Amino acid sequence: MTVSLTDIKKDQEVACLIEMANNHLRAMGYTDHSFRHVELVSNKARDILLRLNYPERLAELAGIAGYLHDIGNVISRYNHSQSGAMLAYQILNRMGMECRETALIIGAIGNHDEGEGEIVNTITAALVLADKTDVHRLRVRTKDFAKFDIHDRVNYAVVKSDLAIEAEKKLITLHLDIDTKIVPVIEYFEIFMTRMLMCRRAANFLDSTFSIIINNAQLL
After folding, report:
1. pTM score of the predicted model
2. What is the enclosing helix (H) or strand (E) of 217?
3. Which residues contact 21 (CB under 8 A, 6 or more apart)?
4. Backbone dihedral region of 113: left (phi > 0), alpha (psi from -120 to 50 degrees) or beta?
5. What is the reported pLDDT for 215?
6. Distance separating alpha carbons of residues 11 and 6, to the nearest angstrom
7. CA 74 to CA 62: how far, in whole Å?
8. In this predicted structure, what is the pLDDT of residue 149?
9. What are phi and psi of 212, to 5 degrees?
């Protein structure tokens, strides 16, 4: 059976898991992982593959992976990528998705975390690039600057974020505008260097190059 991204978004169990996972992360003090985040990651992952001229169905699967990638947080933040992959398997199997498509999606979800993930397929690469480049002040929950941790400060300092895909040049560029009165640029790399290196591996898997431009200066 062909399962679409629209089918996933209409599924009540999926909606419940996303909502509750975000609630659990809020209780732990993590940045926003709400429908805003999963919608953005889903759209970006799909768009990356379309712009790089991958098949439309593969891009659709990347969009599904992006929408489901954080549901494991409903169980625990620890190993959430693996638990999320298992939850996604049960959902997609219930909905009748073909086994090979399900395997691609759960492989991507199970490997999207920078701590232990590997770029195992094209969907993983698109998911990693979409997820790890969602850095923006909209993800900061508290409005009290005195309560910010380092992740809050770095996210809040990012006033503009854009992921540009130049298919002809095989170039994927993260453009950021950072308010250096809030944090110096070096703090971005101190917190997110592991994520950015994973993005580089993801871009390489897609036969592309990953770069970062912060405040109009190329830094990677």
Report:
1. 0.94
2. strand 217-218
3. 33, 70, 71, 72, 73, 74
4. beta
5. 95
6. 9
7. 21
8. 79
9. -125, 130
CA neighbor of 67 nearest in space, from 141, 139, 133, 130: 130
Query: Quick one: pLDDT at residue 139?
Result: 83
In the numeric block, the tokens 């453009």 are attached to: 175
Arch. (CATH architecture) of 5-218: Orthogonal Bundle (1.10)
Which residue from 151, 110, 119 is spatially nearest to 134, judged by alpha carbons? 151
Separation between Cα atoms, residue 198 and residue 216, nearest integer Å = 22
The predicted structure's pLDDT at residue 162: 95
Comparing C-alpha atoms, which of 105, 100, 98 is closest to residue 84?
Answer: 105
> Which regions of the chain are under pLDDT 70?
220
pLDDT in tens, 23-32: 999 998 888 8
